[in-house]
Known about the structure:
By secondary structure, this protein is an alpha+beta fold. The chain has one domain (11-161): minor pseudopilin epsh fold (3-Layer(bab) Sandwich), CATH 3.55.40. Helix content is 32%, strand content 33%. It is built from one helix and eleven strands. It has one helix at residues 12-63; strands spanning 2-4, 7-9, 67-72, 77-83, 89-91, 97-98, 103-109, 118-121, 134-140, 145-150, 156-161. Strands 3, 4, 5, 6 and 8 form a five-stranded antiparallel beta sheet that branches. Strands 7-9-10-11 form a four-stranded antiparallel beta sheet, with helices on one face. It has a two-stranded antiparallel sheet with strand order 1-2. A hairpin with a 4-residue loop joins strand 3 and strand 4. The longest helix is centred in the N-terminal third of the chain and has 52 residues, at 12-63. The protein is elongated. The relative contact order is 0.15. The model has no long low-confidence stretch (mean pLDDT 82).
Amino acid sequence: MKTLGNRKGYTLAELMVVMVIAGIAMVAMAPQAAKMWKRSDLELVSTALETRLRVCRQKAVLNRKPYRLTVDNADNLFYTERRDSTGIWNIDPADTIHVKRGIQFRAFHSVSGTGNAALFFETRGTIAASDAPTTFRFWNAKGETLDVNIVRTGRVRVARKG
């Protein structure tokens, strides 16, 4: 840094050197940033499912009505429903969770190895015996996976792999 009288500042050359170093650092970190971005997509959707499962369980206990989490693999989404006194299932809360393009998911029952389109919560907050335990597996094109596990008591756990 040169001093001209009482004026202080950086020269254009010094600023250019700093910019070049910053550019090289960004180029070097770009592949890691892309990997973290893809991983965060998996974590976002698994966290959304984990939260939705917990809310569904809490609502079943609080409202004393059966709830279910419905998985639509064709449209790549999931949502929760409440059965009213007439036996009709209504979406509650009134929104669906869309899984981002590039992320796939399936439900697997640990006993049978297959998954149903719905996971039933009884009014005491437990999972129907035929549905528990269940694993929801999310994966991306890079082979990274996240599992969201739920057991009969309604306990939810996320297992991060790869």
